[in-house]
Amino acid sequence: MTHTNPITPPLSQPFNIIWLQSGGCSGCTLSFLGLEEMDLIQWSKSLHLQWLWHPSLTEHSGEETQSVFNAILNDKQPLHLFCLEGSVILGPNGTGTFHQMAGMEVATKDLIQQLAKKAHTVMAVGTCAAYGGITASAPNLVEATGLQFDQSFAGSLLPADFTSPSGLPVVNVSGCPVHPAWVAETIGLIRFGKLQADDLDPLNRPRFFADKLVHHGCNRNEYYEYKASAEKASDLGCMMENLGCVGTVAHADCNERPWNGQGSCTSGGYPCIDCTAPDFGHRKHDYQTTPKIGKIPIGLPSDMPKAWFIALSTLAKSATPERLKINATQDHIEISPEIKRKKL
């Protein structure tokens, strides 16, 4: 009996996962290990997940790990989900020999390709695996790329038209690092067969987080509405105009689903740098500086014409309350909102 196209097993049976690390920093694994909605081990048990290999969740190595890979490649073990963390290393000259699997005498890119063809569903964990990420930034001497995308261009190690037996392309759970709950929720949807092609955006990111903007829920939105802007890193004001924040175009729910239960980049005083995007790691400007044409930020809200932005920002600035003007360039609240006495 072969298992080249295994179906999703019922909850009473194990769901086999391999999580392979390639060209990256292991930051997505570190983030995933911090899953808070439920203890990672208990969550895995509740879904009957069987981690055939994960660099932090499994104990075996060497020949034992090789035997796991060989069992899958020889159709003796079904692989329900193949997760890749880190970019695919193609160099030098497309041979992949810059990154080889220890003891297997095979380029990691070839093992990745073989496992992807055996898996029922394939998932790229983090922006490096999805689009190349920082590992593929210039001059990219190692020829790093994403699993199915090279930045925003479909077709990489796996062709643009690749789909797994589940009917899905590579599911790109991007982020640098990825939010642990995005990983857990995506695996859960795949585990129960609830993730369909329509649930992915044009860059194959799950819509449950990619149809949101980081701007949604930002605790600096009052400053944004009045264009009361921060001027330095410690200021309370909106960071879009001067400090490089692109939360108005970044697809993620970071401010609605806080990291570690309470934090996000913008709430911590750091500008959003759109780490879920295909071009993350490839921009040619300082991430903490807002590129402008004249006085107009390039990173305008996704669906706002420039003329509207100029008109609205001019009007908003003329109506900015004194409280916001002063607080925007301070590291603490200087003027508190007035207490309005309501007439009964």
Could you explain how this protein is built, in words?
It is a single chain. The chain is α/β, with parallel strands linked by helices. 23% of the residues lie in helices and 12% in strands. A five-stranded parallel beta sheet has the order 2-1-3-7-11, sandwiched between helices. A two-stranded antiparallel sheet has the order 4-8. The longest helix is centred in the C-terminal third of the chain and has 13 residues, at 306-318. It is elongated, with a radius of gyration of 23 Å. Residues 1-5 have low confidence and may be disordered.
Considering the chains and any ligands shown, give keywords for the structure.
single chain; 344 residues; alpha/beta; Rossmann fold; Cytochrome-c3 Hydrogenase, Chain A, domain 2; 5-stranded parallel β-sheet; two-stranded antiparallel ribbon; 10 helices; 13 strands; 23% helix
Total beta strands: 13
Order of helices and strands: EHHEHEEEEHEHEEEEHHHEEHH
Profile the largest sheet.
5 strands, parallel
Question: Structural class given helices, strands, pairing?
Answer: alpha/beta
Low-confidence stretches: 1-5
Strand order of the largest sheet: 2-1-3-7-11
The CATH homologous superfamily of the largest domain is named NADH:ubiquinone oxidoreductase-like, 20kDa subunit
